[in-house]
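Retro notes
What went well: the complex prediction finally ran end to end.
Inputs used:
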Amino acid sequence: MRKNLLQKIWDAHTVRQLPGGQTQLFIGLHLIHEVTSPQAFADLRRHGWKVPYPDRTFATVDHIVPTAERSRPFLDTLAEEMMTAIERNCREYGIALFNLGDERQGIVHVVGPELGLTQPGMTIACGDSHTSTHGAFGAIAFGIGTSQVRDVLASQCLALSPLKVRRIRVSGRLSRGSYAKDVILAIIRKLGVQGGVGYAYEYAGEAVEAMSMEERMSVCNMSIEGGARAGYVNPDEKTFEYLKGRSYSPRGEAWERAVAWWGSMASDRDAHYDDEAELDGTRIKPTITWGINPGQSVEIDEPIPRANEVPPADRASVEEALQFMELKGGASISGTKIDVAFIGSCTNGRLSDLREAARIAKGNRVAAHVKALVVPGSDQVRRAAEAEGLHEIFRAAGFQWRDAGCSMCLAMNPDKLVGRQVCASSSNRNFKGRQGSPTGRTLLMSPAMVVAAAIAGEVSDVRQLL
Amino acid sequence: MIPVKDFVICRVSGRALPLRGDDIDTDRIMPARYLRCVTFEGLETHVFEDDREQAAGQHPFDNPAYRGASVLIGGRNFGCGSSREHAPQGLQRWGIHGIVAVSFAEIFLGNCVLLGLPCLTASVGDVQELQKLVEENPRSEVCLDLESRKVSISSNGKEMASAPASMPEGVRQSFLGGTWDGTALLLSAPADVRRIAQSLAYTRAFA
């Protein structure tokens, strides 16, 4: 039987089979950040364990860092304590830290790829569920908890149960106004938020092949929102082109050998898949979530579902979502008033996202009642955007231009919703309370749709602005 | 493998807490603002904090009838979303020592294993029946039996119902053998790890 990429990477990284069916898997790249690592280091100290492969772990700070006033010590003493902890931990264990003030700082899932740390054929782990992002390069990337962060630090390994692979083919080309974000929202809607449990998703088909690396990252990023343990795209010429010349990419003769090895890790043409799914990419329209999980979405011109129209098993959650969101089943999502517009996050905080957002914002003006934020995914993205003058376009249109961090995606920093505010957000989760106010409401959409909503002051069809 | 006696978990039993609803995410179990910490201590006080606030005393975690419960009965896709271990840490520190649900999100499940917090799945019908029986009689005792792979409920020592419950076999063996805290196991083969590390083209910088 010919192999898919997951099987090839799994086999190459298997240290041994563990009793009971789990596999001890070598982790090629370990990324850490300030929120899910302090307790792991405390455990290492308690047991007297060392870090045998410190050069395979890289650290950055993203979740708690302010995106406006960043001088130290932070006003938030708890956040400051976490900063001090990661600085000390990295120093003591010899781990590279991309700290504030370092031009490599940024959201962990933006930084890994842009530095060339993320490469095809690798196993990658990070104490963050959106680690699936790195699968865009043809790597197998796992989000893990803190005890597993400790395991990777101490052993460079994880104990994992075998995964099945579902190939999801998105055929055709996307239409104008539809983006990678709409593709992944459509996939999650179709397969459900728990449809991926037990699986890694392989994204394929013409629409995915046509995507840039940054678009593929947006798709893979939200694999976890579909319940999948990982998500990936097979490496191709675009992958190699993206990696060429990056800080940690191989050079010279090693580059040629790297490209050959990377290519060899792609799924074989007649590889085995445990399941297949297909979507018509030409029919995907701008998509917005109306509910409290990322599977609860509609296309811009489609009515919000009524609780009595959905399968009985989903009825309670649809009712709960409609009530929380104060939306009516049967009504249009278009015209929903917003208070805040957020562009950023590990899903949609990259240069191409900001370029497209700026292109639409240019010459327009954010509605008077809307607070609008643009938060670059990394300091490198910020500098590149500023070099192109994107920050000036955003500011002229009434957006605030910030420094790099997770910001309002999860609101562990000063950027938060207040009260019942409604946020048009380019992030990845619309869970209750996700954006910092327990009763705040999130509408997930593409960055282009966030700009359209910011300008109109309500959810509106970006295709009218294109 | 030699069983580690103190870590062997064959069953979890005690009073139960029914938590209805599917897709309960870890942001709800442990709101992000409580992740601003360098230890897990004290997280039990913030479990489901925002949901409880909004339920104004009607949330199961605030119901005096369920005080002291050690088994949580959840729905479908329990623990989805963020990988934050703070969520199961908070539940465990609150007093939850076993969970039975229709299904679990995988990162949450992996976190629970490493905390010695067994998670079993049962059919939708059985889970709902169990929730109903506990709601009707909160003093009844629920037992998650890892050895016989079943969940049962009893009242005054008399079994009222039981149903098959499962977990991945490797994980089950690790609870029965007391080896669920697997770091020692991962550390026990450094030469094998080194061999794989050296066999990969990228760790040798494609030299």
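What we learned: The longest strand of chain A covers residues 164-171.
What to try next: split runs per interface for comparison.
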